[in-house]
C-alpha cells in the first residue's frame, strides 16, 4: 500500500495514511496528503472526504527524526490549512492514537469520529521540549475551551475517545467500524457548509480571570524544564487576541524558539534513548520469547510487595511466598492497601483494584512456584541465603522457567552457578518503590540466554518499566555510579558545603531531589549496614565518618524525623545546626580547611564524577551504550530529562573540556578523580559518547 491512498466509496473519498510504525507525518506523508486532498477537492464526483490511518494509529504526529534537519515543504501547518480550507466536508475517522501533529491534522478536519477504544488523544509535544507547531495551540482551545486545552498542552496528558467526546473534541464515538461510521457521518454532511474550528471565535468571557498567571506560577519545576511550558502558555494565550491564521504563524515562531533549545534536544534524545535501550545486540527481533503467564515472588518485604504490585498491575497472576504467616500477612496487607489507595485517588477503578488483588495467591510454601514461568527472589541481601534459595528453586522450578534475583549488590554469576541452569538465571533489579519507579536494570550474567534477556525486556514493557541491560559488577550500572557521586558529595560536605548547599545547588539545577535529601528519604541505615560490612579504609573511611555518626545518633532519615535534616510533622525538611556542627567538627578532626563551595562547582563535580564512572562502566562493557546509562539516570535516579543525563551533559560540555576539568580535579584531589581512559581517548579524537553510540547501531 502506498503512503497515502484514496478509495472512493460512492461520493465519499476515503483517504488513508499508511506510514508504519506510527503514521508519523514525514515529508513523504505530508506530500501525499497534500496531493490526495487537492485531488479529492478537484474531483467533481467527490462530495465529502474521510481521512483515516492504519492499524492502531491515526498518526503519532510529526516525524521526530526530521527535527534534526531542515524541514522541507510542504510544512504541516500548510497541509492542515489545506485540509481545513476544503469546501467539501472533511471527517477524521480517528481509528487509533492521534498525538501531536496527528491530532492537529484531526483538528483541521471539520468533524471527528473516533473508534471507542482509542486511548491516546493529546498534544504531548511538551514532553519533547517543544510546543504544538501546526495550529494545535490555536485550534484545541477553540474546540474544547481555553482552560481544558491549556491543561492538556502544558501537561502533554492523553485523553480517550469518551473523554474527548465529553470535552467536545470528538463529535461521535463509533461502536463499530470507525471508517464505515465516518463515511455515513460524511454522507449526512454533504451539501452543508463546512464547520471549521479555525473560524470559531473564542468566548473570552468564559475564560477564568487570572488563568494564565496561575498557569505561569505553576510551572516552576516542570518536568520539561524552564522553556517549553512557558512557550506553551504564551501560545495558548494568543487565542484571546489573534485569529487562527495569525496565531498559528506566531505559534510557529515560538515552536522554533523552543525546538532550538538544548532542553528540547535533551528531551528528544531521552525519548529515543529509552526506545534504543530495548534493542539488545545479537538478539534479533525475531527471537522467540519464553511464554510468561504466571509469576512467583519470594519475599514479601519492601521490594517483594512493590514488585508484586507491578506485576499485578501488568495483568499477571502472582504467587507470593514468605517464611512466616506474620510476614506474609504484612506484605499482603500492604499490597491490598496500595490498591485501595490507588482506587481512592481515582488512579484505578474499584473494580480494577479488586480484580488485580484477586490475582494474588499468598503462600508459605515455596513448592507452589512449581508452575511459575518467572520467579523473582527478593529476600534479605545475603549471599549464603540467596545461594541456598537458588539451589532450592533449581529443584522446584519447571524446565524453561526464568529465575531472577533482585539483589542490588551481589554477584549474579555466583548465584546462577549454584543452579544447573545458569542460562535461565538473571538479575531483575527493581528500584524502590518498585511499583512506581520506572527503571528496571536487567542484569545479564555470563551465561544468561539471549531469549531470557529478550523475554525480560518484553515483560519490562508490559509492566510499564523501562528495561535497560546491565552487566555484573558491584552496584551494576546505576548504583556503582551513585557510589562515586555519593563519595564526592561527602567530600564536598567535609570541604564546607553544607547539606542544604549541596541539595540546593543540585535542585536549582534541576534534580528532583538533592542527594542528601534522597538519602534521608531512603533511610540512612541501608548504606550504614553496607559500609560496616565492607570495612572501609583510606578516603572511603573518611567519607563515611559523617553519615556513620548521623546514624549512630539514631537519625535514620525521614522515618525517624531526622537525618541530614530535621523534619516537621509534614515531613518538610529544615536545616539542623547540630548537623552543621558535626560536619565542621569532622572536617577539623581530618584537618580539612573548610571553604564556601560555589553552586557551579557542586554541580560540575557531581556531574563529572557520574560521567567519569559511567565512562569506565561503558568501557568495561557493563553498559551497552552511553544513552543506556542516561536512560537509567532519568528513570531511576530523579535526573531531570530536560538535562539529558550525565553522559549527555559531558557530551554537551564537550569531552575535551570535561577531560581538562577531570584532570584538574585529579591534580587537586588525587586518585578518586582518575580520568576514565575512554574520556581521554574520545577527547583526544574530538569524539563524543553520542558518536560512539551511533557507531554501535
Ligand atoms: N516520530 C518518529 N518516530 C516515532 C514517533 C514520531 N512521532 N513516535 C514513535 N516513533 C517510533 C519510535 O521511535 C519507535 O521506533 P523503533 O521501533 O525504531 O524504536 C516506534 O515508532 C514505535 O514507538 P514506541 O515503541 O514508542 O511504541 P508504543 O506503541 O509504545 O508508543 C506512542 C507509541 C504513544 C505513539 C509513542 O511512541 C509516543 O509517545 N510517540 C511520540 C508522540 C509525540 O510526541 N508526538 C508529537 C510529535 S511532535 C509534533 O507533532 C510537533 C508538531 O506539532 C508538528
Ligand atoms: P526486606 O527486609 O524489606 O524484605 C525481605 C523479606 O524477605 C522479608 O519479609 C523476609 O521475611 C523475607 N525472607 C527472608 N528469607 C526468606 C525466605 N527464605 N523465603 C521467603 N522469604 C524470605 O528487604 P528488601 O528491602 O525488600 O530487599 C530485598 C532484596 O531486594 C535485597 O536483595 C535487596 O538488596 C534488594 N533491593 C532492595 C532495594 C531497596 O531499596 N530496599 C532496592 C533494590 C533491591
| Cofactors, ions and other ligands in the entry | acetoacetyl-coenzyme A, 1,4-dihydronicotinamide adenine dinucleotide
Main beta-sheet strand count, sense and barrel state: 8 strands, mixed
Which structural category fits the helices and strands?
Answer: alpha/beta
- Unreliable stretches (pLDDT < 50, length at least 5) are none
Integer-rounded radius of gyration: 28 Å
CATH superfamily (homologous) name of the largest domain: 2-enoyl-CoA Hydratase, Chain A, domain 1
The total tally of domains equals: 4
Helix and strand arrangement:
Layout (H helix, E strand, L loop, with lengths): L3 E6 L2 E6 L9 H16 L5 E5 L4 E3 L16 H10 L4 E5 L2 E3 L1 H8 L2 E5 L5 E2 L13 H9 L1 H10 L5 H7 L4 E3 L3 H12 L21 H7 L10 H10 L6 H16 L2 H15 L18 E4 L3 H12 L4 E4 L3 H20 L5 H9 L1 E4 L10 E4 L5 H14 L5 E4 L6 H5 L8 E6 L8 E5 L6 H13 L3 E5 L7 H18 L3 H11 L5 H8 L1 H11 L3 H15 L13 E2 L5 E2 L2 H13 L9 H21 L6 H11 L9 H8 L1 H15 L7 H9 L3 H8 L1
Parallel strand pairs: 2-3, 3-5, 4-6, 5-7, 6-8, 7-9, 10-11, 10-13, 11-12, 13-14, 14-15, 16-17
Antiparallel strand pairs: 1-2, 15-16, 18-19
The structure holds acetoacetyl-coenzyme A and 1,4-dihydronicotinamide adenine dinucleotide.
The site of 1,4-dihydronicotinamide adenine dinucleotide has 22 residues, from helix 12.
Amino acid at each position: 500500500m502506498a503512503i497515502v491512498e484514496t478509495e472512493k466509496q460512492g461520493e465519499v473519498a476515503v483517504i488513508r495514511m499508511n506510514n508504519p510504525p506510527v503514521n508519523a507525518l514525514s515529508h513523504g506523508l505530508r506530500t501525499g496528503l497534500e496531493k490526495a486532498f487537492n485531488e479529492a477537492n478537484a474531483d467533481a464526483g467527490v462530495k465529502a472526504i474521510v481521512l483515516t490511518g492504519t492499524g492502531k494509529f491515526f498518526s503519532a504526529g510529526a516525524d521526530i527524526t526530521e527535527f534534526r534537519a531542515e524541514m522541507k515543504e510542504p510544512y504541516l501547518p500548510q497541509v492542515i490549512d489545506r485540509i481545513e480550507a476544503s469546501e467539501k466536508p472533511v471527517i477524521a475517522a480517528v481509528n487509533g492514537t492521534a498525538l501531536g501533529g496527528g491530532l492537529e491534522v484531526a483538528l483541521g478536519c471539520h468533524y471527528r469520529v473516533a473508534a471507542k477504544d482509542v486511548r491516546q488523544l493529546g498534544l504531548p509535544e511538551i514532553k519533547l521540549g517543544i510546543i504544538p507547531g501546526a495550529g494545535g495551540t490555536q485550534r484545541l482551545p477553540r474546540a474544547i475551551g481555553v482552560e481544558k486545552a491549556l491543561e492538556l498542552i502544558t501537561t502533554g496528558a492523553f485523553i480517550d475517545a469518551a473523554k474527548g467526546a465529553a470535552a467536545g473534541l470528538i463529535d461521535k464515538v463509533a461502536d463499530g467500524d470507525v471508517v464505515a461510521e465516518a463515511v455515513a457521518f460524511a454522507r449526512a454532511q454533504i451539501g452543508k457548509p463546512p464547520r471549521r474550528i479555525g473560524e470559531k471565535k473564542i468566548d473570552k468571557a468564559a475564560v477564568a480571570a487570572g488563568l494564565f498567571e496561575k498557569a505561569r506560577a505553576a510551572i516552576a519545576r516542570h518536568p520539561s524544564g524552564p522553556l517549553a511550558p512557558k512557550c506553551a502558555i504564551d501560545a495558548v494565550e494568543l487565542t484571546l487576541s489573534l485569529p487562527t491564521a495569525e496565531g498559528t504563524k506566531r505559534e510557529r515562531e515560538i515552536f522554533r524558539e523552543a525546538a532550538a533549545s538544548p532542553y528540547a534536544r535533551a528531551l528528544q534524545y531521552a525519548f529515543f534513548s529509552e526506545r534504543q535501550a530495548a534493542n539488545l545486540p545479537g538478539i534479533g527481533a525475531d527471537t522467540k520469547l519464553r511464554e510468561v503467564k504466571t509469576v512467583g515472588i519470594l519475599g514479601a518485604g519492601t521490594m517483594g510487595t512493590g514488585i508484586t504490585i507491578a506485576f499485578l498491575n501488568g495483568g499477571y497472576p502472582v504467587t507470593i511466598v514468605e517464611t512466616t504467616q506474620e510476614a506474609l500477612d504484612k506484605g499482603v496487607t500492604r499490597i491490598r492497601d496500595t490498591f485501595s489507595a490507588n482506587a481512592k485517588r481515582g488512579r484505578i477503578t474499584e473494580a480494577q483494584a479488586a480484580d488485580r488483588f484477586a490475582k494474588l495467591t499468598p503462600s508459605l510454601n515455596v513448592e507452589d512456584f512449581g508452575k511459575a514461568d518467572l520467579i523473582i527472589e527478593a529476600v534479605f541481601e545475603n549471599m549464603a541465603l540467596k545461594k541456598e534459595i537458588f539451589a532450592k528453586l533449581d529443584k522446584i522450578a519447571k524446565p524453561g522457567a526464568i529465575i531472577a534475583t533482585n539483589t542490588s549488590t551481589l554477584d549474579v554469576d555466583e548465584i546462577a552457578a549454584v543452579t544447573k541452569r545458569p542460562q535461565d538465571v538473571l538479575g531483575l533489579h527493581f528500584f524502590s518503590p518498585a511499583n512506581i519507579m520506572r527503571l528496571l536494570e536487567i542484569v545479564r550474567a555470563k551465561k544468561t540466554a539471549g531469549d531470557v534477556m529478550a523475554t525480560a525486556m518484553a515483560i519490562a514493557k508490559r509492566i510499564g518499566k523501562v528495561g535497560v541491560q546491565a552487566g555484573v559488577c558491584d552496584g551494576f550500572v546505576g548504583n556503582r555510579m551513585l557510589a562515586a557521586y555519593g563519595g564526592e558529595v561527602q567530600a564536598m560536605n567535609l570541604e564546607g558545603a553544607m547539606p542544604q548547599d549541596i541539595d540546593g545547588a543540585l535542585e536549582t539545577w534541576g534534580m528532583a531531589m538533592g542527594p542528601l535529601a534522597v538519602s534521608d528519604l531512603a533511610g540512612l541505615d541501608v548504606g550504614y549496614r553496607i559500609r560496616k560490612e565492607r570495612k572501609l579504609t583510606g578516603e572511603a573511611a573518611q567519607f563515611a565518618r559523617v553519615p556513620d555518626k548521623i546514624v549512630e545518633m539514631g537519625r535514620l532519615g525521614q522515618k525517624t524525623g531526622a537525618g541530614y535534616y530535621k523534619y516537621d510533622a509534614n515531613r518538610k525538611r529544615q536545616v539542623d545546626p547540630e548537623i552543621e556542627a558535626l560536619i565542621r567538627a569532622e572536617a577539623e578532626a581530618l584537618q580539612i580547611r573548610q571553604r564556601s563551595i560555589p553552586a557551579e562547582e557542586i554541580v560540575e563535580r557531581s556531574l563529572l564524577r557520574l560521567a567519569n564512572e559511567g565512562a569506565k562502566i561503558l568501557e568495561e562493557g557493563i553498559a551497552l551504550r552511553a544513552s543506556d546509562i542516561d536512560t537509567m539516570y532519568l528513570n531511576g535516579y530523579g535526573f531531570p530529562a530536560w538535562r539529558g543525563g550525565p553522559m549527555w551533559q559531558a557530551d554537551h560540555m564537550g569531552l575535551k573540556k570535561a577531560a581538562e576539568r577531570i584532570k584538574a580535579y585529579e591534580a587537586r584531589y588525587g586518585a578518586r578523580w582518575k580520568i576514565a581512559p575512554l574520556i581521554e581517548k574520545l577527547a583526544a579524537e574530538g569524539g563524543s559518547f553520542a558518536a560512539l553510540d551511533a557507531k554501535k547501531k
